[in-house]
Amino acid sequence: MPVTPLDDHQWAITTPASTYVIAVEIDPLTGEATPRQKYWGPRLPAEAARQVAASGARRHVSSFSTPAEVEELLPVDGGTRWSAPSLQVAFGHVRSLEPSFAGASVHDEGDGAQRLDLLLVDAHHPFEIVLSVRVRDDTDVIERWTTVRHRSDAEVTVTRLDSGNWFVPDAASYRYSGVFGAWAEELQLQRGPLPVGELVFTSRQGVTSHTANPWVMIDDGAATEEHGEVWGVALAWSGSWRLTTTHRPEGGVCVSGGFGHDGLRWTLAPGEELVSPAALGLYSAGGFGAASRSWHEYARRHVLPTAREERPVLYNSWEATTFAVTEAHQLELAKIAAGLGVELFVIDDGWFGGRDDDTTSLGDWWPHRERFPDGLRRLLDGIRDTGMRVGLWVEPECVSRDSDLYRAHPDWALHMTHRRRDEKRGQLVLNFARDDVRDWAFGWLDRLVTELDLDYFKWDMNRPFTQAGWPEREAEQDRVWIEHTRNVYRVMDLLRERHPRLRIESCSGGGGRIDFGIMRRTDEVWPSDNTDARDRQTVQHGFSQLYPAGTMSAWVTDSPNPTTRRAMPLRYRFHVAMAGVLGIGGNLPEWTSGELAEAAELIAQYKEIRPVVQHGRQYRLAGTPGQERSAVQYVLDDRVVVLVYNPLGNAKRGPRHLRLTGLDPDALYEMTGDGSRWHGSVLMSAGIRPAAWEPIGADHRSELVVFRKVRTSVAEPVP
């Protein structure tokens, strides 16, 4: 079984390719219990795991430091610890914990999953801590979270509750990988030496944020795309979060992650418990590529609600209309889109209230009275008559001052006593932590789906929190940072339960809410408002480090691009978008007949390769996407799809032969189109010479290459 007790205080957590050994050590002088990580690396048999548990190396301790803090599963604030704590609790004026061990239990959860719970109690106060570890027999991702329980009438305040601390085994040097960004420049991959000290990745915005994403990978500086050991930690949470990576001066690295950010206070009522979101850990011995593929497969098996479905080709009307949504124009767009082979039509912002610009009507979720005096039914039926499904853009978490909702319920917006209410994008944030706001949002969303028979919501969130207060809750108002996100989850969960056919896309002004927490409730995510194909390549490269292509919405829009003004061939724009979930967002009536014909052909090609792209194993090949020759490859069963890119025409240096990977070296593969047959070993060792990679030519060349395995072993020469 995945959880193997080694004795009463030690356990081996076993995944298909790794072992994670933990122990509870008891200080013989103080009686304090310290849950500690003893091993995390390649899979070991039980006897070997027992041996590493008993043979842990001691770290040098001075009167000024306790270096072994980095090995603790949940370093608490108290005792002889001085690094960033994973748990901070105050009992009145006493901010300290002294935990003792109260027992462990193993639970079978079905479908090959087991959970280990370690129970700790404070030495004086009736305060409990439960450290939970879940492991499954079909993934190398380990899930951890923390529960704290308050058992007395005394005041208890939690100021930090991380999901867990992960120790990265000793190495001569350390390198971190993560992503940074901004609006229209999300998910930019960065790698660098991990400095001694604390390196913090965080969002204080109330959403996952554009500036960082809640994951980090650590290696020894020698890992490559396909070789080397990599340890990764990710947080499944869509609000404010924090990952603290600590590199001790004496050596040793740990990563502690959880929800919230500096300065928040969560007061617990007597008998109340607080549960953290899950922190996820992954060890991979196959480099960054294998780590990414493990994350992707975990998402498909244990996160995404409809992972086995094929995502439809959608059209979104935003860039063609902005706020000027009319029945006649939408139907014109729908007829053209359907003729191209589009399967889902999404009406974006501008269909409701008096929404003529971004200063008004958020909160007034009924059809625009002037443009749709008889409602939306006729428009939506007209779209369905073309053979497409239909969806709407919504932004349930925000409100305009100029709205009937705000005039009726100004107290529903986040606010603080004696402080102004700052607007961003002409709007305020609703306090979704309030049950009445949550119930209101579910009510109108449920009504829209029911009355209009909707297939799809694009759920947007276009600004971070400001003045994030809840005056009615007084000392407990910091709970808004937790309960807002939890109630967003609850509304999405209820909608999906009530309407099993409904699909939801997560958007937050682009890529401001992408994480495994929101992905548990949605079917795809929008990684950036920047649809420039060249910029999108770097965004998609960063996205692929953790998240699978089948969740990544990618549009083909107009040229020159509305954001960057860069002109680019339609073929290149399509080939970049075909690396994820293909969508169209251009002003179709202005496309030429030649462009429309080419678009229809490329959409048909995408539908042929869609199962491989959305469900296959992904491999990142060659150079930096968007900057030099690159390619992305997908493999599913006997099918291989490769999208090849060359953004710079006059590029004489760099590879001109594309070597594939992840194939059967003894098999024979046939190239679609010319029928040529290739040994798998040749495709991986010598490679092919894509026309797009020729050293002289136009900028922005690309091609689609498709192979199918035709023989599992080569018994005769290639014809």
TrEMBL record:
The keyword Hydrolase applies. InterPro entries: Aldolase_TIM, Alpga-gal_N_sf, Alpha-glycosidase_related, GH, Glyco_hydro_27/36_CS, Glyco_hydro_36, Glyco_hydro_36_C, Glyco_hydro_36_N. The active site is at D460, D529. GO terms for biological process: carbohydrate catabolic process. It holds the Pfam family Glyco_hydro_36C. The keyword Thylakoid does not apply. It catalyses: Hydrolysis of terminal, non-reducing alpha-D-galactose residues in alpha-D-galactosides, including galactose oligosaccharides, galactomannans and galactolipids. Gene3D superfamilies: Aldolase class I (3.20.20.70), alpha-galactosidase from lactobacil brevis (2.70.98.60), Golgi alpha-mannosidase II (2.60.40.1180). PANTHER family: ALPHA-GALACTOSIDASE C-RELATED (PTHR43053:SF3), GLYCOSIDASE FAMILY 31 (PTHR43053). This is Alpha-galactosidase. It comes from Nonomuraea terrae. The lineage of its organism: Bacteria, Bacillati, Actinomycetota, Actinomycetes, Streptosporangiales.
